Amino acid sequence: MEHYTTHIKAKTGWFDINYRELFQYRDLIWLFFKRNYSTRYKQTILGPMWLIFNPLITVSLYAFIFGNLAGLSAEGVPQFLFYLCGNALWAFFATCLTETSRTFTANAAIMGKVYFPRLVMPISSVLTGMLDLLIQLAMLVVALVGYCIVGYNFGIGTSILLVPVLILQVGLLGLGCGIIVASLTTKYRDLVILVSFGVQLWMYATPVVYTTGIIPQKYYAAYMLNPMAPIIEGFRSVILGIPTDAWQYWGISWITTIVVLFIGVILFSKIEKTFMDTV
Predict the structure, then answer these.
(1) Under 8 Å CB-to-CB from 146, ≥6 apart: which residues?
(2) 3-state SS class at 172
(3) For the segment 218-258, what is each residue's pLDDT rounded down to a tens digit?
(4) Closest CA to 226 of 122, 113, 90
(5) SS3 of 38, please?
(6) Nearest CA among 132, 137, 133 for reference residue 36
(7) Can you tell me the distance from the alpha carbon of 263 to that of 151, in angstroms, rounded to the nearest whole number?
(8) pLDDT level of residue 52 (50, 70, 90 thresholds)
(9) CB-neighbour burial class of residue 215 (10 A; exposed 0-12, middle 13-18, buried 19+)
(10) pTM score of the predicted model
């Protein structure tokens, strides 16, 4: 009697996600993760060293332009640490969103030849951004230790335990936004062009290079509806000890994250059934 381990059948529902099958394909997630990095730095002189140089150059430019030329406040903490905190989480979110948004259009050739759970690719994109984030967090820890040695006191307490939760939320939000865009780009290719531009605009609507202290009080509540704003402010607060009232909006941010992810998974599940007919 023949035995089989995989049963392929038509998916007709709005929420046809087999999480057990997704776990079984974890090795494929790892392979796509390695592919993302090998293709990113293929034929480059510095190779993976760009993982260090890129945030260093970016943060240095932020400190020079926004800190020195524009004179924006860093809330009394060293400018390098202030901008590194904001850039670390934002770069993670931007990578998750942009890489995930290209899931269908960039991998149509592979998806048309072999079966595997399509969510494997967005998850591998999030892991790609996670490695970038871990490297920036390592740089942040080294810088924190250095400043502590020369006498700075950042008042780090037990709230530091919220860091993994904040990182998880950023990953889920980036994944949700990315798969929504990925699903829509199968029919509307204009979104591929608009994603990079939209991410840049979103960054300036988020306290990455400034603090929420410059936001007029009458617009503050509306501004904090941006789900990334409480996350960035909260991250700086637990790392650098900067006081903030953004925590009262963190719950709303989590609700937005869950809703966006839920809508994204539903759209992704629906579109993946017919995307080969439209891509």
Answers:
(1) none
(2) helix
(3) 899 999 999 999 999 999 989 888 888 888 999 999 999 99
(4) 90
(5) helix
(6) 132
(7) 48
(8) confident
(9) middle
(10) 0.84
Amino acid in the structure at residue 86 = G
Q: What does the block give as tokens for 172? A: 């889920």
d(CA 108, CA 206): 33
Cα separation of 36 and 2, whole Å? 38
CA distance 241 to 218: 26
Residue 189 is encoded by which pair of tokens?
A: 């290719």
Token pair recorded at residue 234: 């909260």
Are 86 and 207 a contacting pair, CB within 8 Å? yes
Overall residue count recorded for the chain in this entry: 279
Q: How far apart are CA 196 and CA 95, in angstroms?
A: 10
CA dist., res. 170 & res. 59, Å (int): 20
- As given in the structure block, the two tokens for residue 63 are 């400190």
- Give strand ranges (E) for 101-207: none
Q: How far is CA 232 from CA 29, 69, 140, 164, 206, in A?
A: 28, 23, 15, 13, 8
Tokens encoding 195:
């994603």
